[in-house]
């Protein structure tokens, strides 16, 4: 890896409710750092995303008479809309329900720790 490579991630936000000021604060701070590093000619990869599993999500979905995936699909769109409105410069947005994420987790769990 080049010494001018910079990898940055926000927390992978838990989506049992709509985004709030804490999510925005953290993401804006990360965005400022990503922009600074880009301005300093670093090769930046800025990741954000959502964690879409757990009992709180299941309970929140039930309270809205929705399945967990229906519920998180709606909440995730609010996060994406907010990041767009704030002009967040992320390179990728990962969801823990996405196939690419699930495949990678399965690969890591089945691999020899030295091969991860």
Question: Could you provide a short overview of the structure?
Answer:
The protein is α/β, with parallel strands linked by helices.
Q: Any descriptors?
A:
three-stranded parallel sheet, Rossmann fold, single chain, 4 helices, 116 residues, alpha/beta
Which SSEs are present, and which pair or pack?
Blueprint: E1 5-14, H1 21-39, E2 43-51, H2 55-63, H3 68-85, E3 92-95, H4 99-110
Parallel strand pairs: 1-2, 2-3
Helix pairs in contact: 2-3
The helix-and-strand class reads alpha/beta
Helix count equals: 4
Q: Share of helix among residues?
A: 40-55%
Largest sheet: 3 strands, parallel
* Beta-strand percentage range: 15-25%
Separation of the first and last Cα atoms: 16 Å
DSSP strand count: 3
Query: What is the CATH class?
Result: Alpha Beta
Uncertain runs are: none
**CATH architecture heading:** 3-Layer(aba) Sandwich
Give the name of the CATH superfamily: HUPs
SSE series:
EHEHHEH
Q: Number of domains in the coordinates?
A: 1
Kindly provide the radius of gyration, computed on alpha-carbon positions and rounded to a whole number of angstroms.
Answer: 16 Å
Strands side by side in the biggest sheet: 1-2-3
CATH topology: Rossmann fold
Overall 3D form: flat
- Output mean pLDDT: 92
Any overview of this molecule?
The protein is an alpha/beta fold. The protein has one domain: Rossmann fold (3-Layer(aba) Sandwich), CATH 3.40.50.620. The protein is built from four helices and three strands. It has helices spanning 21-39, 55-63, 68-85, 99-110, and strands at residues 5-14, 43-51, 92-95. The model has no long low-confidence stretch (mean pLDDT 92).
């Amino acid at each position: 890896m080049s010494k001018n490579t910079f990898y940055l991630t926000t927390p992978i936000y838990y989506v049992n409710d709509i985004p709030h000021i804490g999510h925005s604060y953290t993401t804006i701070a990360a965005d400022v750092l990503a922009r600074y590093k880009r301005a300093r000619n670093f090769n930046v990869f800025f990741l954000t995303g959502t964690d879409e599993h757990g009992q709180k999500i299941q309970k929140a979905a039930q309270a809205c008479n929705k399945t967990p995936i229906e519920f998180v699909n709606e909440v995730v769109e609010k996060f994406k809309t907010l990041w767009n409105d704030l002009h967040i410069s992320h390179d990728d947005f990962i969801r823990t329900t996405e196939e690419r994420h699930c495949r990678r987790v399965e690969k890591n769990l089945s691999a020899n720790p030295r091969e991860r």
